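Re: duplicated header lines in exported structure tokens

Our pipeline writes sequence and tokens for each protein into one text file. With two proteins the header for the second block appears twice in some exports. Here is an export where it did not happen, for reference. First protein block:
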Amino acid sequence: MNKMIWVCLLMTFFASPVFAQNKPSNSTVTQGKKFKPPVLKTLLLNFTDSVVVSVTEAQQALGGKLTVMDAAKKTYTLTYYQVLYERRVMTEDEETGKLTPTRTLISDHFKTTPLPQTWVSQISSQLKPGEMIYFFDIIVKDAQGRVMYAPDLKLILR
């Protein structure tokens, strides 16, 4: 009986899984040095940050290439971004026939720049003052494959 208990204890000891803690891999740690991402700037033609532009300037910018660079003018590979177009529209009350101004959103995500021609032509033909084109969730990679977020870009139409 005593022998049976020892055999059961030994089997339990060897059968129980043992997991060691692994050091989490962090892509920002390279050869023992912590990576500090550079300050990035997002450009569409010569527009950056939040800028007020005319309808004509926005139409020209939509066909341009979205670029992300740092202070040393080093460009980064664009891997993903989203574009949101906030447009002004009118809604009609079915009972009274009264028109009320409101806004609608058109948005999509992209992995290449410039924007597809169908998107550019469709939005360019609808642009009006008071609307906005917003580039956000911009993700870039550097030469070592480190992933970083770039600042958003907003074109506000006057």
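Second protein block, exported in the same file:
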Amino acid sequence: MHRQYFPRCPVDGPIEPAVPYEYEGTRGAVPMKCSECPHLYGSACTRAMPLIHHSLHLDHGACEIEGPTEPVSLENEFLRAKVDVPEKCATCIFLGVSLVEGFYCTKDVDKWGDLHQGLDWGTWRPARIDLQLPSPKVTTRELTNFAYEANLVAFVKELRRVNPNVSVTEARDDFYHLRDMIESFLVRSEDAT
């Protein structure tokens, strides 16, 4: 679940007042800083698309409800797979779920409307961002791990296993492409702390 929130938004700016916003029949509001951002697209943020190849939740700031934000697995009779959410959200009465967006916060639904408020991950950050190669290539978690570990040989073997038509040269180029993205992410993470 945290893959929809990280890398974290680097823009400091006001969340309030919520700015009315409408997109393809959905009505609600977006955070002030997002309303003025060129990365707002629909009800999502495109700031990290070059790095992760998917959009992210908008940054609604910190939740007023106190509690730990380390990820915990949420599993019940309604879920088919385990999903990680912030610990304080796992038992919160405001935890909502959507087939399209996954889990979100319903605490201020009167303010945000159909444009759901994301979960509050507090100061927790993942050790690694799940990176993606451009479609149609399949990117497994093992590929990402091998790229983080700078293990070129294992990366090439795994990439060619899950993408059989990829040459060794192309696999090597993909490895260095992911390594460049990792270095970029690590530098941004250090700047944010």
